[in-house]
Amino acid sequence: MKPSIKEIAKRLNIAPSTVSRALNDKHDISQSLKDKVNAVAKEIGYKKNSIAARLVNKKSNTIGVFFLSREHINSEENTGFKYVEVILDKIKQKNYDLIIFSVDSDLKDKKKYIDICSERQVEGAIFIGLEDTDENTELLRNIDIPTVILEKRVSGKNISYIGSDNEYGVNSILDHLFELNHKDIAFIKGPDFIECSKDRFMPFYKRMNYLNLYKEKFVKEGNFRLKSGYTAAKELLELDEKPTAIIASSDLMAIGAMKAIEEKGLKIPDDISLVGYDGFDVGAFLSPSLTTVLQDFQAMGEKAVDVLFSMIEEKDEAVNIVFKPKLIERKSTKKIFS
């Protein structure tokens, strides 16, 4: 016969309701009694019915993670995966279940994100890769469950924002290149409908323009993928006047640019300096190793979960948290003499 709460209650001579409250770690039960109940439960092999417990407590213990922007970015080229792994581990530690919604499956029917959260009875949601063109963005402002959005600012009573200080990151690159005497600096940006693309390009534009160094022909657009970096760099290297340094707004585009530079018969950094953005591990193993701006995806992903659970469990208000990235100087940049 399957071990039950009644058997534990009989052994300890207490009410079954007291056993239930002890097993659910209620505050009105002493720790010593909780320890006794759990010891007997372990001894007889009792397993708590988590589904029944959730029904009684009217809690789903489920978090929804919306993993977006996958239609135009391959899995191996998507920074969102850096967050997903961290978030998965962190939520499992909280003993919550996780449902991942992605545009190539659950969201094909264009259901409203708020409706999906309601249908699945999720207690909180995390959004990765939300774009300006997403018709759900405005609707999310009225979402009634705790929500954290990574790298996209959406104001709302129940929405927290976790992001990176892209302005600081880009200016740290420019500081570095200016120290190396570079003035003819090109920039490979991302698509304008992605917030971090604009956040990385605008500091470059403003500072270079202020110093009268900005040249429209030195700006090319990619899509964060390898091939787009390769194509953009090829176009830059076909100009009569060539840049002495290229900033790519992702490491993957920088790696693509490396191939274009090599095919042109140029050497990095002797002929041209190159800087990426994101801080992927692969950059350290390239030849030459890639100077880049490191984003701490681990810390940002963990903070997203911590903030979400503070909103769920402690009823804390929504917050905006911005992490400062770090310039990693490697071998792909070099001082020039003119």
The proportion of strand residues reads: 15-25%
Multimerization status: single chain
Number of domains: 3
User: What is Rg?
Assistant: 26 Å
Q: CATH superfamily of the largest domain, called what?
A: Response regulator
CATH architecture of the largest domain: 3-Layer(aba) Sandwich
* Low-confidence region ranges: 70-77
Structural class of the helix and strand makeup? alpha/beta
Q: Outline the biggest β-sheet.
A: 6 strands, parallel
Q: Can you count the helices?
A: 12
Would you mind describing this structure in some detail?
It contains 12 helices and 12 strands. By secondary structure, it is α/β, with parallel strands linked by helices. α11 (251-263) links the parallel β8 and β9. The longest helix has 17 residues, at 297-313. Mean pLDDT is 88; it is low at 70-77.
List keywords for this structure.
338 residues; alpha/beta; 434 Repressor (Amino-terminal Domain); Rossmann fold; six-stranded parallel sheet; four-stranded parallel sheet; 12 helices; 12 strands
